[in-house]
Design brief:
13 strands, four-stranded mixed sheet, globular, single chain, alpha+beta, 5 helices, paralog of FGE (formylglycine-generating enzyme)
Length: 362
């Protein structure tokens, strides 16, 4: 319910000329070594097998490269690049959709965080009349605003929730195949448990997003727009005044509107941020890198964000439809985002993973 800092979305876009020139195996990245074991049975409906294995996790400093935009964030929380091993797993091929979440709600009568009345103890000093259910909406500004003032384009909308994404009077009718949004962390966890799945760890998510490749800046490869083709749903135009929709969508896109990555997984860049199971700490990669190869890392034991001390954060991955080279380019595959677990907004969703039963993988 708390307004997100959106420092998770303050960033750069890097180009790719230098990365393309260096190619796989440039400084900091080793090869991706996939497990040889086959999937232990048929993939569950809507999921694909990700073999797991050893890979280099994280990203280089994009500010040393030729930039396609004006970003200057060095992404220090995504370094050092370090070696990680993950076991194989199944992953949803798309973000969880409105129709999938509707089936869960119908079966369980679950009430999301955005639909609940905020607790006074969580918002000391708030007037009782202000403690109404709702969520956070991205709202275009009528003119240019300083990009260091995120409150200019975010507002709290009473009544906004997963099936009323714009607030009262709106619905998801006709948008059944769009990603569900206004989902807090516990809402995503509840769905995953009902579906017999779980949220991915950050390491699982990045291994899947890389699609078997090593050191690429994007889930699809080295070039931002190969042969001039848009590869993800992000923001074009003057941020935050108008998304021109040059990529085909102004705002959210239906899932699987762009080509999948090397594992057959869609929308791992742009569209909506995706919750991961790990707590966020900017120094976590440095901690695990000191211990050598990290095997199935689950993230730190607690959270610390120096930009908001005292406010725990969970990992977001993948960027969203408001990512832009003017402000946020954390759709780059090795980069990281973060979010306060009880916060929901119209640019955060999730997908799930499933692991084989013990002894099933051979």
């Amino acid at each position: 319910m708390k307004i997100p800092t959106l420092t998770s979305v303050v960033l750069v876009t890097a180009v790719h000329a230098l990365w393309a020139a260096d190619g796989p195996g440039r400084a900091g990245y080793g090869p991706t070594v996939e497990n040889a074991a086959k999937a232990p049975g048929a993939s569950p409906a809507g999921m694909v097998w990700v073999p797991g294995g050893e890979f280099s996790m994280g990203t280089e400093d994009p500010t040393r490269m030729v930039c396609e935009g004006h970003g200057d964030d060095p992404m220090q929380d995504a370094r050092p690049i370090h070696r990680v091993y993950v076991d194989g797993f199944w992953m949803d091929t798309t973000e969880v959709t409105n129709e999938q979440y509707a089936r869960f709600v119908e079966a369980t009568h679950y009430v999301t965080v955005a639909e609940r009345r905020p607790k006074p103890e969580d918002f000391p000093g708030a007037r009782p009349e202000d403690l109404v259910p709702g969520s956070i909406l991205f709202t275009a500004t009528p003119g240019q605003v300083p990009l260091n003032d995120f409150l200019a384009w975010w507002r709290y909308q009473p009544g906004a929730c997963w099936n009323r994404p714009g607030g009262p009077g709106t619905s998801v009718n006709g948008r059944e195949k769009f990603p569900v949004v206004h989902i807090a962390y516990e809402d995503a966890e509840a769905y995953a448990k009902w579906a017999g799945k779980r949220l991915p760890t950050e390491a699982e998510w990045e291994f899947a997003a890389r699609g078997g490749a090593s050191g690429k800046p994007f889930t699809w490869g080295d070039e931002f727009k190969p042969k001039g083709k848009w590869m993800a749903n992000i923001y074009q135009g003057s941020f935050p005044t108008k998304d021109t929709g040059l990529d085909g969508f102004a705002g959210l896109a239906q899932v699987a509107s762009y080509a999948p990555n090397g594992y057959g997984i869609y929308d791992l860049a742009g569209n909506v941020w995706e919750w991961c199971a790990d707590w966020y700490r900017p120094d976590y990669y440095a901690q695990v890198a000191r211990d050598g190869l990290a095997r199935n890392p689950r993230g730190p034991a607690d959270s610390f964000d120096p930009q908001e001390p005292g406010t725990p954060k969970r990992i977001h991955r993948g960027g969203s439809f408001i990512c832009t080279d003017q402000y946020c380019s954390r759709y780059m595959v090795g980069s990281r985002g973060k979010g306060e677990p009880s916060s929901a907004s119209n640019h955060v969703g999730f997908r799930c993973v499933m692991v084989p039963a013990a002894g099933a993988a051979k």
